[in-house]
Amino acid sequence: MITDMTKGSPLRHILIFSVPLLVGNIFQQLYNIADLVIVGRLLGVESFAAVGAVAPLFFLITFIIVGFTNGFAVVTGQRFGAKDYLGVRDSVVISTILSTIVTLFCTVLCASLMNPILHWLNVPDNIFHNAFWYIEIIIIGLITNTFYNLLASIIRALGDSKTPLYILIIASVVNIVFALIFIQVFHWGVPGSAVAVVFSQTISVILCLYFIKRSLPILHLKKQDWLIKFDKKFFDSVYEHWRIGFPMAVQFSIIGIGIIIIQSVCNTFGSNVIAAVTAALRIEQIATMPMMSFGVALAAYVAQNFGARKFKRIRLGVIKTSTINVILSVLMAFIMRFWGTNIISAFIGSATKEIIDIAHSYLLISTIFYFFLGQIFIYRNALQGMGETVFPLLACIAELLVRSFAAVYLAVKFGYIGMFYSGPIAWVSASSIMFFGYFGSIKHILYKVRAKLHS
After folding, report:
1. pLDDT digits over 244-293, tens only?
2. What is the domain count for the chain?
3. Is 5 domain-assigned?
């Protein structure tokens, strides 16, 4: 259902919007978590490590796609907030064209260079074959990932966060069922898990298109919508989408590159450390989902209110969601510190005490810094919802530099324990830049509004 978030209680809108997002994000993680649980329990530690060793590369490519599609959807949301419904359909057309071009480029580039990329990642020889075919299949099916994220982002930009949730639930169940079939019945091993991911994402795209056709007439594109005139209006619209989408993709890719650098360092410590870190990161991703969901909900709220020029509502929404994320960061840190490792064995049936102890060490370190991560989600999404890209980009660059230096230097000095501090140190750096960037941006916007009123 379409929701106009430019009127009514800001907190109510954000809460209602974020709950389906939270559940949806958890099911989104099930794509990878189901792979890891099934692979780990049915095929063993080495197969589990093979998926984990290339997971950051999967995340990097997905981050790039999500950055572009979310950025394009910001334009859609702003036009919807401004009641420019013709502009909404124009945004969908431009977003589709740009997303297709970007995806084809990424697919060809990554698929052709996969072998040297995995060698650069220091993937161990004993898991190289499975790692290669897992990520290669994912890359070949990347177009399904792109179009699901694009369609879901557009639906959310119109204020509907429930439908993408329902679609994710269905797709996650499909993923689990077919991963079991491909591995246990067909004996396809690790590559079978990747095939299940691509198949379930294809189902997601089909369901999104069906919902749009049945329930969202505002998005029903006609033949004339696709008859592109290469005039100034068209290129202005392309620039508007690219101006927001490209920096957001760069921001997400920088995060992904940082994770890849850490993974390349992690891979040098062997299969046990890879397996432990992979499991701990999946648990942490679920733990931080509530904070991330409030951030994504805030982005949709801010985009609509920015389009409607209701800047006081933006500030009120940011204050309330920031407060909620402080509470959540403390709560989730407490839960992870005391119960996080209890589910490690669920990922790897043959997990040793060494693997569990390594994962526990990671969680003990990272949970102390959840507050800073929660504030990154808030201020980054608020800035992106307003179409502001400079400070999020600067924060991501700082995060990459700090994370990379800390991972390499601390790993040399203190081993894998030192590497565990690289992420938290990066969170502190990025959140500081984002905090000052948001308040500087909102102050500048309000100054321009007042100046315009007095002129």
Report:
1. 888 878 877 776 777 777 777 888 888 788 878 877 877 787 788 888 88
2. 1
3. no
User: Residue range 194-219: average pLDDT?
Assistant: 92
- Max distance between CA atoms of the chain, in angstroms, equals 73
Task: Write down the residue that tokens 């792109």 correspond to.
Answer: 146
> What interhelical angle do 85-120 and 45-81 show, nearest 10?
160
Q: Which helix (H) or strand (E) holds 67?
A: helix 45-81
In the Cβ-directed half-sphere of 203, how many Cα atoms lie within 13 Å? 18
Report the run of H or E that residue 95 belongs to, with start and end. helix 85-120
Q: Give the per-residue pLDDT at 54.
A: 85
Domain that holds residue 410: 10-454
Band of the pLDDT at 299, cuts 50, 70, 90?
confident
CA distances from 426 to 258, 302, 365, 403, 411 (A): 10, 26, 13, 5, 15
Domain membership flag for residue 312: yes
Handedness of CA 399, 14, 164, 282 (dihedral sign): positive
Distance CA 175, CA 30 (A): 8
Task: Read off the pLDDT of residues 33-82 as tens digits, 9 standing for 90 and up.
Answer: 666 778 877 887 788 788 878 877 887 888 889 889 988 988 998 888 88
* Structural domain includes residue 266: yes
State the residue for tokens 């994320």.
325
Tell me, yes or no, whether 206 lies in a domain. Answer: yes
